[in-house]
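Page 42, continued from yesterday. The earlier attempt failed because a stray header line got pasted into the input along with the sequence. Redoing it now with the clean sequence only.
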Amino acid sequence: MDARFKNSLDRYVKDKIPTGGFLRAVLENNLKEAFGRADEEATVQMKEIVMYCYNELPYTCWGSPEKVASWLSGKRLDKSTDPLESDEAQEILEEGCKSDYEPKPKEE
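This time it went through. Structure tokens are written below.
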């Protein structure tokens, strides 16, 4: 990914500095706006940029206009607006995945 995109995203996360319009649209999960604002290089790198957001950024700072606004303001979203913050989701995370699956022993 081009350094200008990574640096802007990293400043957004670390220092809560707003990005430009293209990355803002990516962060807000607005595909139409992101492609409308993307230059040729950004269009080519769109998948890599989104993968970076998905794999490296806190889920609370991107994915919707509300999450981006909340991140920039320093305020947390209400649990009712973020399904991953719900009591049910937190309970699942605390319990972890439970499975009855056991791998078959290797045949010799």
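Notes: The chain has one domain: 3-95.
Reminder to self: strip header lines before submitting.
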